Amino acid sequence: MSKAIPKRSEDYSLWYNELVKRADLAENSGVRGCMVIKPYGFGIWEAMRDQLDRMFKQTGHVNAYFPLFIPKSYLSREASHVEGFAKECAVVTHYRLKNAEDGSGVIVDPEAKLEEELIVRPTSETVIWSTYKNWIQSYRDLPLLINQWANVVRWEMRTRLFLRTAEFLWQEGHTAHATAQEAIAETRQMLDIYARFAEEWMAMPVIRGVKTESERFAGAEDTYCIEALMQDGKALQAGTSHFLGQNFAKAFDVKFATKEGGLELVWGTSWGVSTRLMGALIMAHSDDQGLVLPPKLASTQVVIVPIYKGEEQLQLIGEKVAEIKSALLAKGISMRYDDRDTERPGFKFAEWELKGVPVRLAIGPKDMEKGTVEVARRDTGEKTVVALDENLPDYIEQLLADIQQSIYQKALKFRQENTHVVNSWDEFKQVLDDKGGFLLAHWDGTAETEEKIKEETKATIRCIPLAGQLDAVEEEGVCVYTGKPSRQRVVFARAY
Q1: Overall pTM surpassing 0.85 (yes/no)
Q2: What are phi and psi of 205, to 5 degrees?
Q3: 257 in the same domain as 137
Q4: Which residue of 354, 445, 477, 481 has the fewest C-beta atoms within 10 A of its own C-beta?
């Protein structure tokens, strides 16, 4: 704890990497490009996973599990899908090892070559739709609303903990419907769930929008997304929901008997978020002292640090803390009593500040005599002396709610201050270089212009905002790059 983490203003990337490691969230593994998620980090991911899982089930979805390995021939069924993932696939070619004759170790047994190579799951559309062919026969089998919590592998060459790793954890929903309208409604519903989770649990404001054709998920008709702004002015795609049309139903011949006795292809969706949300959570809120966690996702919401001399004082404080703990747990508030005798209180304060615990209580013999306790909030650093009585749990409960809202409002204010309306190419480049953030600019709708802007500035179209998402976007104008007509502004940014 003696060495401070780097400052965001000096080296944002180093600040992020050091914070992930020093806060005990994750570390690099012995496998290149992969990470070990440590217990403290996994606790936050579990809170995310559990809440999302509740939201999915509230809308009628159920969980299942599908194989990690996908036959290569499956990926060949949908041309745009395989093209989109071909460069990221890890391929299993053999099924056995043997000892080398020279005693140097184990080698792949050349006699154990698979008849058909297997792809380590980069995403599961193909293996799931091959299964749906057997599950769907009639309109009575629809809609089919399945979600899977799993790991996937996408062979990344340049990796960063949580944001981009060769293997990561995620959920992927895959649904089948009788009509296009039902599938589109499902796609939009899941986008709204992701947005609500991001804003109400992660305290992270997002823009709902649709991707351009060039940014669309491979094999989808439309890709909807939520985009968030990080503190360095870069955007991060926090979740996607895809309307697949009938592309995968055609590829795997998934048809259903209609009420009228006909036979039709089903309509599909897929949607997912991943441990990338951990990176978003860190970069959206944390500061130069460490993590800042929204209370709803903190695995430890309150930490109590005793200030004492000798075992007798510690015992008295411990008895009082036991009462506080019981009352907090009754309200569903998670807490930890840090009574380690190996560290001084100042060390503990700094450690829990680094780990982002929303509320810290400090209590000593003098506090108990006065009937008070010192309460410190992580987001602002503000300290308050509060009565140590039966009202303390109610006070803590309200304080956690205030912190949750305060963190959101701070992030929203940052986004508002870093969202810029630009009307010319020179202004576009200047604002992007000098300020960063979200740029609301007109675009002529062509992939050619989109690519040229990306080549010249490294800025991409993060999304075409849905109606009502942002001011000043639903107006006609001319493209900042070509001067050609534009129906509305889109969101540009440099991104992770």
Answers
A1: yes
A2: -65, 140
A3: yes
A4: 477
